[in-house]
Amino acid sequence: MVPGLRKKFNETFTQQQYQQFLEDLHSKYPGAIEFRIAETPEFIDKAFTKKILDACESIVDVITDPGFKTLTNRSIPKGENVPNENDISHMIAFDFGICINENHELEPQLIEMQGFPTLFGFQVYYPDVLRKHFEIPANYTQYLGNYTRETYIQDLKEVILGNTPVENVILLEIKPHEQKTRIDFYCTRDYIGIQPVCITDLIQEGRNLFYINEKTGQKTAVKRIYNRIIFDDLNAQKDALGNFVDITQDLDVVWVPHPNWFYRISKFTLPYIKHPFVPPTYFLNEIKQIPSDLENYVLKPLFSFAGQGVVIDVTKKDIEQVKEPENWILQRKVTYADVIETPDIPAKCEIRMMYIWKDGEPRPRAAVNLTRLSKGKMIGVRYNKDKEWVGGSVAFFEH
Known about the structure:
Elements: H1 3-12, H2 15-27, E1 42-44, H3 46-63, H4 68-72, E2 91-100, E3 106-114, H5 122-133, E4 140-141, H6 149-161, E5 169-173, H7 182-192, E6 195-198, E7 203-205, E8 208-212, E9 219-222, E10 224-227, H8 231-241, E11 254-256, H9 260-264, E12 281-283, E13 297-301, H10 316-320, E14 328-332, E15 348-356, E16 365-374, E17 391-393, E18 395-398
Parallel strand pairs: 1-18, 5-6, 5-10, 10-11
Antiparallel strand pairs: 2-3, 2-15, 4-18, 7-8, 8-9, 12-14, 13-14, 15-16, 16-17
Helix pairs in contact: 2-5, 5-7
């Protein structure tokens, strides 16, 4: 996206350099990175950075509106409403495709968003290693919102821990050491000091929760939970998990972020956002007339994650067969640009803008990012098998 930097990176790139980088990246926690790491980062100039941040801030305007909670109450499925909801979502992520418009200009287009954590720890560690092996200009950074490495980690620590002693804060997940993103849990432990804990290992006594501290071996009170559990995932695995604490109970813990925000800031919010960089989106039950150009739309279920249930090539029959249209959205497709030059064919790129929201602050703040490169029909592993210069990456923004 910055032609001079792209040309220089591609011309100086060697496979040996890439392999040495990967060996270094994997050396700290061997086997903990199960997803493909792309050969290149992305370089984003100031003009495009402004476009994507402006889009994010317009969405933040909707989220911070006093009526947002009332607007999104229906987004939380029955049986999954967790008590003691916080006033804010401590983490938010906005996914944008880098697209090309009718004037052949590059622009961001919102794909999805989530009031839920993503790789907030790994995106410190990974770019650090990347800079050791590849030349990244000094005036380009993966940090946003005027953050530096030090100030970002400090604020991340403040968001996750609050005023709670570190031993009383845990990262909660389902089988954390088997998750494909477990490298992020280990990086979070390194930077913040909290332990990943499986939901099956929680100990409940009345409204109180405990865990076994791996450092001390002692049963320790849980007062604050950095939540990585997605109900969709939990419901799919519950029969195989055996006994585990029902987190929809009224428990004496503070959630970071609270599970309800996963639903409030999600595909459910898209129809309420009006912005040139947000594709027109409609609740299926509110559509008066099915668009005649359905090939330009994608059909998405509200209550699923990781692209499950999405219908890309929509037909009238697909829409007519939907049983609960209020739980589906129809979203106008966007055209990803073949924007990242690689040794063979160009790659498409999706940027995840990652925000953190400190207690007491009126708005969340842009902090870090991750990117994914693809040469397939969609972003994702199954569309990019046996391809190179694809996978997880990071954008460096001009500042």
